[in-house]
């Protein structure tokens, strides 16, 4: 079979030859255009880079090009860089060090310094990261040096490190605070449950009737003692809460300290004598008065003195000094007790801190007393300090209070503010015979207690459980005194007294009234007095004090009593 051949027209051959000729012409042109494009891109990157870039001749080690950021970094113009060796513009100590470095670059092809100090044209030192590479350019070896300013990076790293340290310290502090809080809550639970155990236990024995007269009397004494201890714990917790929230207020007036301190010492003397502790006093009765809250000043002395007695062993000595030192009144209470360890001395006034918070600790209490002392002293514009040679060497507390700047004429009330709760008034209680008292409290047990106290002193008592019932009783009959709780449903004690004060005089609108309430803050007292009560009595209240309040409201005293 004959073979077939494809016949290519002459015209097509001519076109193919022309195409090949055209390709041979355009290839070099494209290569040149690509090279030019690469150079443009490189130049743009070179000029826009935020790292300094230096190009050196690898043979002469002289600078042949520099980007704008390098000029900005060191303060030299491009012309001042070009033709110089690096050592001439502060990169190395001297020419030899520079040449040694670049011999290493040429040998390894690479050199890096993590932290290289450079000096700017103005003499400022800049820390930089320095990286050098060797490469070929147009048949010649060049060295490219990239310089990155690391001051900002170092600042960020230092800031990050500082933040990390701060976070770690805060976490450690939080862990310590949580530990202290947990220990404190355990102590609170123990200190509240311990007296409650005695109160409930002896109360149950009394209700069974199995105790003889002597045992019954002892049971009552234990109940009263533990109830007072529990009240003190609650008072301390409330004081700390008010201090933390900034709600503690002072009833400031001129106060003579000597009589007040004597009253506190007299109240603490039985406790000291029971442990054969000698109380020694050196009180300058002529010291100038101070400006302060008498009750809070008493609390300062009471806390420090009771603390000294508690931590002083049997047969020890507690000394109380009062004197004027320049423009300050100095109160010093020292003891021969167990002292304070040096490592704990700086923490002795901190909240919730005790030198021994273990279950085997020898002394009770919440560890709030000294913290309250410091806060109260500072609120009076004074300072308090603690000093102890060490454990077993005793402790000295020093309180400094500013002298009253302007002399005031002091009355008896200012000069002798007897500490409430230290001594009872049982032996000289006034009679409430022929007095009609209206008691308002939504808690039946509390209402019955108040009524029993009043009846026991000869009063005629009507007790009701709500404000509405109280208003109905006052519409029906007159009363000499009104005693009302504050926190009650539907109508609280504030609303009740406001409605009472709106009544006519013949319906009891001017009946003397006392607020007996568990709302015991200064703000609560001010609100109660502003609402229309003559007196504010925080719960729990001693029966003797309650009797005195009612007698005072009824005019059984010739002059007002400070309660």
**Major sheet attributes:** 5 strands, antiparallel
Write out the CATH superfamily name of the largest domain.
Answer: Histidine kinase-like ATPase, C-terminal domain
Query: Total number of β-strand segments?
Result: 17
Point out poorly predicted stretches: 1-5, 355-364, 407-427, 558-563
**How many separate domains make up the residues?**
4
Rg (C-alpha, Å): 45 Å
Query: What share of the residues does DSSP label as strand, in percent?
Result: 15-25%
Question: What is the annotated CATH architecture of the largest domain?
Answer: 2-Layer Sandwich
What does this structure look like?
The protein has a five-stranded antiparallel β-sheet with strand order 2-1-5-4-3. A five-stranded mixed β-sheet has the order 7-9-10-12-11. A five-stranded parallel β-sheet has the order 14-13-15-16-17, sandwiched between helices. It is elongated and about 135 Å long. The protein is α/β, with parallel strands linked by helices and 563 residues long. It has 16 helices and 17 strands. Strand 3 (110-119) and strand 4 form a beta hairpin.
């Amino acid at each position: 079979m004959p073979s077939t051949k494809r016949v290519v027209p002459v015209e097509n051959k001519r076109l193919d030859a022309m195409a090949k000729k055209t390709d041979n012409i355009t290839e070099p042109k494209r290569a040149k255009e690509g090279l030019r494009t690469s150079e443009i891109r490189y130049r743009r990157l070179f000029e826009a880079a935020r790292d300094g870039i230096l190009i050196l001749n690898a043979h002469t080690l002289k600078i042949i090009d520099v980007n704008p950021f390098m000029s900005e970094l060191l303060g030299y113009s491009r012309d001042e860089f070009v033709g110089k060796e690096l050592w001439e513009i502060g990169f190395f100590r001297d020419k030899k060090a520079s040449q040694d470095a670049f011999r290493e670059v040429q040998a390894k092809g690479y050199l890096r310094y993590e932290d290289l100090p450079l000096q700017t044209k103005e003499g400022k030192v800049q820390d930089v990261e320095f990286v050098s590479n060797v490469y070929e350019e147009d048949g010649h070896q060049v060295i490219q040096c990239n310089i990155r300013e690391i001051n900002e990076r170092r600042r960020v790293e230092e800031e990050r490190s500082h933040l990390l340290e701060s976070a770690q310290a805060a976490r450690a502090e939080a862990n310590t605070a949580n530990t202290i809080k947990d220990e404190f809550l355990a102590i609170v639970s123990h200190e509240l449950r311990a007296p409650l155990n005695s109160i409930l236990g002896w109360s149950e024995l009394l209700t069974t009737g199995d105790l003889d007269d002597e045992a019954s009397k002892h049971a009552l004494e234990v109940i009263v003692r533990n109830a007072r201890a529990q009240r003190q714990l609650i008072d301390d917790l409330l004081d700390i809460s008010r201090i933390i929230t900034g709600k503690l207020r002072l009833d400031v007036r001129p106060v003579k300290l000597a009589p007040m301190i004597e009253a506190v010492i007299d109240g603490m003397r039985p406790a000291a004598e029971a442990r054969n502790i000698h109380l020694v006093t050196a009180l300058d009765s002529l010291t100038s008065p101070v400006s302060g809250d008498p009750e809070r000043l008493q609390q300062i002395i009471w806390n420090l003195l009771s603390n000294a007695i508690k931590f002083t062993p049997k047969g020890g000595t507690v000394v109380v000094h009062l004197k004027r030192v320049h423009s300050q009144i100095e109160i010093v209470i020292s003891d021969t007790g167990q002292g304070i360890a040096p490592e704990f001395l700086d923490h002795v006034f901190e909240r919730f801190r005790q030198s021994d918070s273990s279950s085997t600790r020898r002394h009770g209490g919440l560890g709030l007393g000294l913290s309250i002392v410091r806060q109260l002293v500072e609120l009076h514009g004074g300072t308090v300090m603690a000093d102890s040679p060490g454990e077993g060497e005793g402790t000295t507390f020093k309180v400094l209070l500013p002298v009253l700047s302007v002399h005031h004429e002091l009355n008896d009330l200012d000069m002798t503010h007897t500490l409430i709760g230290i001594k009872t008034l049982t032996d000289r209680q006034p009679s409430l015979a022929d007095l009609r008292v209206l008691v308002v409290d939504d808690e039946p047990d509390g209402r019955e207690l108040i009524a029993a106290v009043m009846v026991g002193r000869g009063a005629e008592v009507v007790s009701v459980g709500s404000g509405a019932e109280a208003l109905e009783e006052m519409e029906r009959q007159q009363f000499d005194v009104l005693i009302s709780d504050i926190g009650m449903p539907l109508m609280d004690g504030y609303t009740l007294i406001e409605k009472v004060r709106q009544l006519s005089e013949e319906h009891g609108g001017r009946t003397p009234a006392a607020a007996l309430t568990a709302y015991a803050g200064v703000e609560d007292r001010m609100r109660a007095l502003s609402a229309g009560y003559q007196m504010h009595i925080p719960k729990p209240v001693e029966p003797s004090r309650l009797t005195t309040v009612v007698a005072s409201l009824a005019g059984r005293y010739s002059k007002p009593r400070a309660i």
